[in-house]
From TrEMBL:
UniProt record similarity statement: Belongs to the RecA family. RadA subfamily.
Binding, ATP: G102, D103, P104, G105, I106, G107, K108, S109
RecA family profile domain span: 73-222
Name the record gives this protein: DNA repair protein RadA
Cellular component annotations (GO), alphabetically ordered: cytosol
Pfam families, A to Z: AAA_25, Zn_ribbon_LapB
HAMAP family per record: RadA_bact
Organism: Tepidimonas alkaliphilus
Keyword terms: ATP-binding, DNA damage, DNA repair, DNA-binding, Hydrolase, Metal-binding, Nucleotide-binding, Stress response, Zinc, Zinc-finger
């Protein structure tokens, strides 16, 4: 007799192993494997899947030269929320599946309710499926958002089969499932929110969307304790992955594209939370600069890039006498890079922080991953250590290498233009980012900004001496 096959699935990454481990062999997360008995796949289902796959391919598998294939520009429908459209690459695409992940309470439901309502008002049939709140709760939220008269259809349901039936019947152009972790199918015995359920439900919903040409938006919670299967389990299945993030204590919310088959990734949409919902922030730079009346030590404005968009962010550093084991802590910036920068500062500029606690923070809850933040971090640290503020209206960017060299950053001129636009006065930037022969347009765009091109960290520190 065939033994029942048991499989262990990871809640974090969805990887499977035949045996239980304390640590997932795929993603290295601890304690995330859960036992599942894989349902034997009915042949009809398998055949349906195969034919669905085939549909997406050319009918007869004809061979064509890439240049001869007509590149169909996908039709997009703007959602009416400009900041959301920016990350989506212009709007929602028919048949596309979008996953929106984020911590509970960050504002996913609010964002989607607003977007869906705007689409409904624009004349598109929509459907909002809620598994987390009752219809009455959704209505209450809509009233609070000033959308009390919304014609948007709402379905409070968690059974997958019922949701699929409604999708077939109503044929919405855009449907939101809030959240995928609450949906379950009776075909599987595992609990809602388990990897097997989340994966299977998402797969069936995705197929329904592809078949009907509807845009499907799946909401996925990220949970720290891993009690629910995370959105990462689904990332490879969907066309677009957005993450909704923000500091719980700040009212700003960022939507970031992690993956997008229909647009550029790492685009950023910025929203402010208000009593009446999320409002797009057209000029986010102003938002991440804290307003000091006088320049203070340890603060440096960084001209960073979010996607293709230049953004000014204040980087703060605090250097203070540490104990026997000095701490290096960073919020919003990479800690390993901070340690490296401190070593560069010591070795190449003779500024020692070995016995000091060093804290750095990117204001406003932004996360900065690009190495072009190096120079600003380094100058903020030096400024805090010296107890001397950087000049008024000071801005910097540039990658710092282990040899103390300052390397150019992408789109340097656009960063400088943004800095000038926001009234910055002094910029210390990689020399290679300055045009050799500045043309009239560049001079006009950076008017009022004194530019210092540097090749080494020592030079940068000399400018702000
Ligand atoms: P919610 O959209 O329910 O978050 P999620 O779906 O990600 O769990 O938002 C959480 C709470 O914040 C909710 O009580 C409403 C409130 N909120 C506002 O008051 N204004 C806003 O702009 C947003 C986004 C949320
Ligand atoms: Mg919600």
């Amino acid at each position: 007799m065939a033994k029942d096959r048991t499989l262990y699935l990871c809640r974090a990454c969805g990887g499977s192993t035949p045996r239980w481990h304390g640590r997932c062999p795929h993603c290295g997360a601890w304690n995330t494997l859960e036992e599942t008995v894989p349902a034997p796949e009915p042949p009809a289902n398998a055949r349906a899947r195969f034919s669905a796959l085939r549909q997406g391919l050319a009918a007869e598998g004809t061979l064509a030269r890439l240049a001869d294939i007509e590149a169909a520009d996908v039709a997009r429908t703007p959602t009416g929320l400009a900041e959301l459209d920016r990350v989506l690459g212009g709007g929602v695409v028919p048949g596309a599946v979008v996953l929106i992940g984020g911590d509970p309470g960050i504002g996913k439901s609010t964002l989607l309710l607003q977007a869906l309502d705007a689409l409904q008002r624009a004349g598109l049939p929509t459907l909002y499926v809620t598994g987390e709140e009752s219809g009455a709760q959704v209505a209450l939220r809509a009233r609070r958002l000033g959308l009390g008269d919304s014609q948007m259809p709402v379905l409070a349901e968690i059974r997958l089969e019922a949701i699929l039936a409604t999708l077939r019947q109503q044929r919405p152009a855009v449907a939101v499932i809030d959240s995928i972790q609450t949906v379950y199918t009776e075909q599987l015995t595992s609990a809602p929110g388990s990897v097997a359920q989340v994966r299977e439900c998402a797969a069936l919903l995705t197929r329904a969307a592809k078949d009907s040409g509807a845009t499907l938006v799946l909401v996925g919670h990220v949970t720290k304790d891993g009690a629910l299967a995370g959105p990462r389990v689904l990332e490879h299945m969907v066309d677009t992955v957005l993450y909704f993030e923000g500091d719980a204590h700040s009212s700003f919310r960022l939507v970031r594209a992690i993956k997008n088959r229909f647009g550029a990734v790492s685009e950023l949409g910025v929203f402010a939370m208000t009593e009446r919902g999320l409002k797009g922030v057209g000029n986010p730079s102003a938002l991440f600069l804290s307003q000091h009346r006088e320049p203070v030590p340890g603060s440096c404005v960084l001209a960073t890039l979010e996607g293709t968009r230049p953004l000014l962010v204040e980087v703060q550093a605090l250097v203070d006498a540490g104990g026997p084991a000095p701490r290096r802590l960073s919020v919003g910036l990479e800690r390993d890079r901070l340690a490296m920068l401190l070593a560069v500062l010591h070795r190449h500029a003779g500024i020692a922080t070995g016995d000091q606690d060093v804290f750095v923070n990117a204001v406003g809850g932004v996360r900065i991953a690009e190495p072009a933040a190096d120079l600003a971090v380094l100058l903020a640290v030096a400024s805090s250590l010296r107890g001397r503020a950087l000049p008024r209206g000071f801005v910097a960017f540039g990658e710092v290498g282990l040899a103390g060299e300052v390397r150019p950053a992408q789109r340097g001129q656009e960063r400088l233009k943004e800095a000038a636009k926001l009234g910055m006065a002094v910029a210390v930037v990689p020399k290679a980012n300055l045009p050799r022969k500045p043309d009239a347009a560049f001079l006009r765009a950076t008017e009022g900004l004194t530019l210092h091109g540097v090749e080494r960290v020592e030079e940068a520190l000399e400018v702000v001496r």
